[in-house]
Amino acid sequence: MITIGVLCSGNLGLSTLTKMVEDYPVQFVLTDRNSTGIINFAIKNNIPFYAGNPRNGKGHSFIKAYNVEVIISINYLFLIEEDIINHSNRLTFNIHGSLLPKYRGRTPHVWAIINGETLTGVTAHLIDSGCDTGKIIHQIEIPINADDTGATMLEKYAQVYYPLITKVLYDVSVGQLILKDQIEEDASYFGKRTPDDGEINWGWNKEAIRNWVRAQADPYPGAFTYYDNQKVIIDKVSISDLANYDNYTNGQIIQIKPKVLVKAKNGILQLDAIRTENCTFVLGKILGK
Predict the structure, then answer these.
(1) Angle CA(9)–CA(161)–CA(54) in degrees, nearest 5?
(2) How far is CA 31 from CA 20, 44, 54, 59, 188, in A?
(3) FRET label pair with 180: which of 139, 150, 219, 249, CA 20 to 30 Å apart?
(4) Which of 160, 175, 190 is a domain's end point?
(5) Are 29 and 48 contacting, i.e. CB atoms less than 8 angstroms apart?
(6) Is residue 285 part of a domain?
(7) Range of the domain at 212
(8) 90 and 104 part of one domain
(9) What is the pLDDT of residue 244?
(10) Is 84 a domain residue?
(11) What's the pLDDT tens digit per position in 100-116?
(12) How far apart are CA 58 and CA 228, in angstroms?
């Protein structure tokens, strides 16, 4: 049976690791210090683990005692260096949450929703010295539905990550691994997001604001605006069919009950779910700084 080393972070990494140990001998785990679920799982199952930044030889110093045929990266927070990439005897690959070469980088599913995409997917690819630039092994397409959020997309990913991994490992076991170059002309890259990046611009189109909000909805930090200098996190908006809005300013509150309605560039948005408590809105006031 193929021996494996796993690099993983977060809930998606944990759920995939949990399935993997049922079928394969996992020799070690590399994770980050904040992924306590993975750390606790490794301790409980007597899997050697290293938690922290693996660069500058730290990760390799830990794994060099373990002989593995394949290293798999799943939602891992860190880029790895060649000492770890080259440690496996047969293959080192990553599962990335987009249809590469599109959406290289961090949180690709969030960016895809923000950009109004209706199709994304996951890619198994070789790890090389670049960021998500290695040759493609397999891809699975996943639709983005109109009401999907960043969280629901991760639920979809969780259903396909492990089957994709088993497909790659089967190809390795029978010597039928087929690799495909990424087409650089089609590549796009999106960087790391922080909670401070979530502010809503009410001058955007209503469709863009709706995508912005659902991409970052709970349990993510959330899209937000300001009301009387208070930060207000909004988890869901919908597009109102109200037509008479030309006399209002972008961000202006034009209705309070039964739901708060706010003017956007090309229409009206209804605030359906507000995470921030005790917000008492006043008709006519303008959201934002």
Answers:
(1) 30
(2) 15, 15, 9, 10, 27
(3) 150
(4) 190
(5) yes
(6) no
(7) 196-274
(8) yes
(9) 78
(10) yes
(11) 999 999 999 999 999 99
(12) 48
